[in-house]
Design brief:
Largest sheet of chain B: 6 strands, mixed
Number of domains of chain B: 2
Radius of gyration of chain B: 25 Å
Helix content of chain B: 25-40%
Number of strands of chain A: 2
CATH topology of the domain at 45-107 and 148-275 in chain A: MetI-like fold
CATH class of the largest domain in chain B: Alpha Beta
Largest sheet of chain A: 2 strands, antiparallel
Shape of chain A: globular
Number of strands of chain B: 20
Order of helices and strands of chain A: HEEHHHHHHHHHHHH
CATH superfamily of the domain at 45-107 and 148-275 in chain A: MetI-like
Structural class of chain A: mainly alpha
Oligomer: heterodimer
Strand order of the largest sheet of chain B: 6-7-8-3-9-10
Largest interface: A-B, 16 and 25 residues
Number of helices of chain B: 9
CATH superfamily of the largest domain in chain B: P-loop containing nucleotide triphosphate hydrolases
Shape of chain B: elongated
CATH architecture of the domain at 45-107 and 148-275 in chain A: Orthogonal Bundle
């Protein structure tokens, strides 16, 4: 009875995964080995050309740029999230839930719209520059967008909750007596952080890294809007292949390559003894 | 020989908001002794321990460790170490790294650390366990690691917060003996927190009995058991038959107490006043079953039920008194009364502890 119920209950989600995740993936995988023709279609001829094309310097550079932006974004997110989570964790239950709700609150607005909001703030004639100019703190308006800085601001802003949530979940699970024991044994605050807190929150940290790093490579609209389209990221490249260049097989190949990178990251983490408790095993 | 005071508490108080958890605590702990803080849960005993370790700030008063005022000195800089209730071993570190943690904090040389950890492992009988992780150890083994982790720092005082509460009964008794042996071997002062009175009695040099944040009595286990100074102390330590009554009169060096309006007990006079309330405590093993006829302090009782634990019989008996009596009898004495319906219990002067008042 119980087993039948479990099966039935998991039917919708299984159906959802199959139809909307697995099938499209299989389709993309299949597509990536096909030859594109000149009018945005493809012919059913097996080729590895799409994958070989990835090793072209132009595209390797896109990979490098994307990973660079994603890396910087992830590091900044970590640097903000740890102090924030430790701060929240010290507060009363009530304050904790209020603060965490505030973290999730931006999700109620579409991220594209929020990115437009940042444009209002960061432009040359934007709010930040206007205030700084009027207070004579700066003489010339700062270039806060249409460059890498703009992209990183946008990425960090959009992806920060994805670092905070798993990290907070990990930190709140640390038994406070471990910290007390470390203090008792003569550990300074910094030592406690690096020797106790970080090792005990590695799973949350890694989940956060995955959830920031991967989307960061794919969020093309942020680099389009805040980077002024000057910097090509993998997300932009994939989007362009599908929508502009209409070279679907090549777009599919990049997607598969990206998937492979993600998988490798998880493998490396697992190999080094990491657990994936917070995401229930990826 | 007068021992040195190693820990001194002067008017130490702790309150959370308006709640006073520890009230005006004064205590001197001597070097090399085991002092146990005993009391029901929530009596503030762990809070006192945490204030000594520095994990909890005092609200008022002063704490001295080895003569130094601990005001403003954080836990990491105090020469005491704690064994936590469920050990709090670092789950991500091996047995070796757990034990070495304190020395690494002191930036000792690697060779030194290796040597000392090895010695410690030998001391707690865990040779060859270096690489294991805490979750791969049994409760008793975790306990030993916790002991080693604290002792390796050569603390002036070792603070133990209910260290045996997570162990099963048999292991508890074994670890009790081991702890005491270890303490005698190393001569380190132990301050030990427990709510288990038998643990306190068997381990301590002195017991500090606490209730609601105050000291009820500070005495050796023998003193506390034989001469409790309050009804609470008598009741909390060991089993006791406790009667409260009123002095009816005093004459010829004897006092007459009336209990439950029915039973007269004669006591040796100790300057009692007529009408004064007294509490009389008799331990179950001191209850005398007698066939000899005495002129006073004889109570007719009837067996209600009994249990046999291998060495003694515990007998519950009813009488004209409100509360049932509890007696601990040898096999021979039990045989004497087993088949009698009504038999007599004799309250000897020397077996009764009298507490002035009814509290």
């Amino acid at each position: 009875m119980n087993r039948i119920f479990k099966r039935l209950a998991s039917l919708p989600i299984s159906f959802y995964c199959l139809l909307l995740i697995l099938l499209p993936l299989v389709y993309i995988f299949f597509l990536s080995f096909l030859k594109s023709d000149s009018y945005g279609g493809f012919t059913y001829v097996f080729t590895l050309q799409n994958y070989l094309k990835l090793f072209d310097v132009v595209y390797l550079k896109v990979f490098a740029q994307s990973f660079f932006i994603a890396f910087i974004t992830t590091v900044i997110c970590i640097l903000i999230s740890y102090p924030f989570c430790l701060f929240v964790n010290e507060k009363s239950k009530m304050v904790q839930s209020i603060l965490m709700t505030l973290v999730i609150l931006p999700f109620l607005t579409n991220s594209l719209i929020r990115t437009y909001g940042w444009m209002v703030l960061l432009r040359k004639e934007g709010i930040i520059n206007t205030i700084l100019l009027n207070f004579h703190i700066i003489k010339e308006p700062l270039s806060l967008m249409y460059n890498n800085l703009g992209i990183i601001i946008g990425m960090v802003y959009t992806l920060l909750p994805f670092m905070i949530l798993p990290l907070y979940s990990s930190i709140s699970k640390i038994d406070p007596r471990y910290i007390e024991a470390a203090k008792d044994l003569g550990a300074s605050k910094l030592t406690i952080f690096f020797k106790i807190i970080v090792p005990l929150t590695v799973s949350g940290l890694f989940n956060g890294v995955l959830m920031v790093f991967i989307p960061c490579i794919g969020y093309f609209f942020i680099s389009d809007l805040l980077g002024g389209g000057k910097l090509m990221l993998l997300g932009n490249l994939i989007k362009n292949q599908f929508l502009t260049a209409r070279d679907w097989p090549f777009g599919a190949a990049i997607s598969i390559a990206l998937l492979l990178v993600t998988y490798l990251l998880v493998r490396i983490y697992r190999k080094s003894g990491g657990e994936m408790d917070d995401l229930g095993g990826l | 020989m007068e021992s040195k005071v190693i820990v001194k508490l002067e008017n130490v108080s702790k309150s959370y908001g308006t709640k006073n958890v520890v009230k005006n605590f004064n205590l001197e702990v001597y070097e090399g002794e085991i002092v146990t803080f005993l009391g029901p849960s929530g009596c503030g005993k762990t809070t006192v321990l945490r204030m000594i370790s520095g994990l909890e700030p005092v609200t008022s008063g002063k704490i001295f460790i080895d003569g130094k005022d601990m005001n403003g000195i954080e836990a990491m800089d105090r020469e005491v170490n704690t064994i936590f209730q469920s050990y709090a071993l670092f789950p991500h570190l091996s047995v070796y790294d757990n034990i070495a943690f304190g020395l690494k904090m002191k930036k000792e040389k690697k060779g030194n650390i290796q040597k000392k950890v090895k010695e410690m492992l030998k001391l707690v009988n865990l040779q060859g366990y270096e690489k294991r992780l805490p979750h791969e150890l049994s409760g008793g083994e975790q306990q030993r690691v916790a002991i080693a982790r604290a002792l390796i720092n050569k603390p002036k005082v070792l603070l133990l917060d209910e260290p045996l509460s997570a162990l099963d009964k048999k292991l508890k008794k074994q670890m009790r003996v081991e702890l005491k042996e270890l303490q005698q071997k190393l001569g380190i002062t132990f301050i030990y927190v427990t709510h288990d009175q038998s643990e306190a009695l068997s381990l301590s040099d002195r017991i500090l009995l606490m209730r609601n944040g105050s000291i009820i009595q500070l005495a050796t286990p023998y003193e506390l058991y034989e001469h409790p100074k309050s009804k609470f102390a008598a009741d909390f330590i060991g089993d006791a038959n406790i009667f409260t009554g009123e002095i009816l009169g005093v004459s010829k060096g004897l006092a007459n107490v009336l209990i439950d309006d029915t039973f007269h007990i004669i006591l040796k006079d100790d300057g009692y006043q007529k009408g004064e309330s007294v509490t009389i405590v008799i331990r179950p093993e001191n209850m005398n079953v007698t066939t000899v006829n005495k002129e006073y302090n004889l109570l007719d009782v009837e067996m209600k039920n009994y249990s046999y634990d291998g060495a003694y019989y515990t007998v519950f008996a009813k009488s004209s008194l409100k509360k049932d009596l509890k007696l601990l009898l040898t096999k021979e004495k039990f045989a004497n009364i087993q088949n009698k319906k009504i038999w007599k219990v004799f309250f000897d002067f020397d077996d009764m502890v009298v507490i002035r008042g009814n509290k």
